[in-house]
Amino acid sequence: MVTSQSSPADVAGAPKAPATVRSAGPPRGRRRRRLYAELSRPSYIVTAVLGFAVLIGAWWLYAAVGGLSDLFLPAPDQVASRLVKYAGEDLWSDTWASFRRVSIGFLISTAMALPVGILIGTYRRVEAAIEPTMGFIRYMPAIAFVPLTIIWIGVGEEQKWLVIWIGTFFTQVLMVMDNVKRVRRELVDIGYTLGMSDLAILGRIVIPSASPAIWDTLRITLGWAWTWLVLAELVAADDGLGHRIVLAQRYLQTDTIFVALIVVGAIGLLMDQVMKFAGRRLFRWAEKGA
Questions:
Q1: Which end of the chain is more exposed for a tag (fewer CB within 10 A), N or C?
Q2: CATH fold of 69-289, please?
Q3: pLDDT-derived band at 284, boundaries 50, 70, 90
Q4: Rounded CA gap, 75 and 95, in Å?
Q5: Residue ranges per domain, the chain?
Q6: pLDDT reported for residue 8
């Protein structure tokens, strides 16, 4: 007869030894999040200001000890004094002229690019008919069109708008097309299941879903419009920041070139921040769903 032996812990009612607890550090779910971590508004502003301070400090240091003449690299204090002098002369009129040209050219481009991009992104036959042409023209350098635009329509304001349009429109179309293509197909299928027409699906599903991405596309291409503005004003312009750069280059006024570039950058940064702020207010649902 075989007798089974059992340990005291196996006996019913016998107290069990406490389990050994391993200390393996903080739980995995509580690890500090670094990717996509939120940053408070004051911290963001302080960090941004420090970034600009480092850039200006490096510029100042290199201008002081880099061995370059002031004619080629003026120090920040020289540029600041030139900015003050320029502000008492033609700064505001030049800035307004450039801002007006960018706004008109960009709005014309946007008004044309949005419907074309939406159609290309939603109808394959339209995409086959238009998208290759858009891609073909997009790779042509916009600067090569400057003499052609002068031949076509002269040297008036319309020529500046056309240069900005050429530099912005074709890329805008392709980016809007991409934005629309990323709309979830199941949402479109639900619309068809509910008996909605193509036009209703576009207006109530596709465009609202793609709107946050389209807004970002407009914000990015607005920066490109400012780039093409300087090109548009390099030839046959009587005012504007780009025109001021050409005059300064002719007379080796490097500090004036820096002033014009800084003003363009400041205006662009301000418009970019305004569009970011407006986007957060218009598309709060998209941030919550992210």
A1: N
A2: MetI-like fold (1.10.3720)
A3: confident
A4: 23
A5: 69-289
A6: 44
